[in-house]
Amino acid sequence: MKVISAAVEALIDAHSSLATISARMTGMQEVEVVVAHSQRAKLRVGDMFLKIDGDPAHADVEVQAMAMAPVPTPAILWREPPVLAISAVHGEALGVLGEPSAASSAAWAATGAAIRRLHDAPLPPWPGRSLDDVAAELDRECAWLLANAVLPAEVVRRNREIAEAALQPWKPVFIHGDLQITHIFVDGDEVTGVIDWSEAAPGDAMFDLAILTLGHEERLDDLLAGYGPDADRNVIRAWWSLRSLVASHWLIEHGFDPDAPGCEFDVLRSRMHEL
Hints:
Blueprint: H1 2-15, H2 18-24, E1 32-36, E2 40-45, E3 48-53, H3 56-68, E4 76-80, E5 83-87, E6 92-93, H4 105-120, H5 131-147, H6 153-163, E7 173-175, E8 184-187, E9 190-194, E10 201-203, H7 205-213, H8 220-227, H9 233-253, H10 264-270
Antiparallel strand pairs: 1-2, 2-3, 3-5, 4-5, 6-8, 7-10, 8-9
Helix pairs in contact: 4-8, 5-6, 5-9, 6-9, 7-9, 9-10
């Protein structure tokens, strides 16, 4: 908790007035640290979330993306850079990485339909990552995994081969960009909110579908029942490997464990049983 507190205090002290934030929080008793690391932190105070980011461009994207997205999003309460305050959305997260999702098949299908609306919407006006960017990152992160013996070499190399299917030109669509299962909220069979839009950009539709089902591959059929029949399962499978390869270094350096049950390393290992 000392590391978390230090990260939060450093971001606030460096970029904003603690007095201003405290004044807005008057009367609220409990502060929950949702996530905190050297780049950003998220706090929950009652029904409000405070997102603190050292890069103001992330909040700029988030605000614009939420205004454009044709799906439910949190309300923006106020902004005092680098702090963005948003409302909580009602319902429960679709699930968490490493645990089975308790959400119904209908909730997953509703999520697929919501993602399809997003992907069919007009593109945001800012650029997304290029294919060359993705390929360079994959090469760099695989080299790091091998050099540091983080995973057996055959696991890295096999998943690198699978990831090739994602390294093909895609038709850009409006993607969320970080559509983790914890970023979709549902109430029964209804999607009530999609949160954390700072990575939104033009990109590959299959990337969003892959990130949402990472570690929950058994729910892909439910998701696609709502999304539509034209999803490329081979590319989704490739993004499972690619995302897990490139994310592991960052997770380790920021105090997260990609080797926790059901997480990135398990995803990579599971590919070894496929032909």
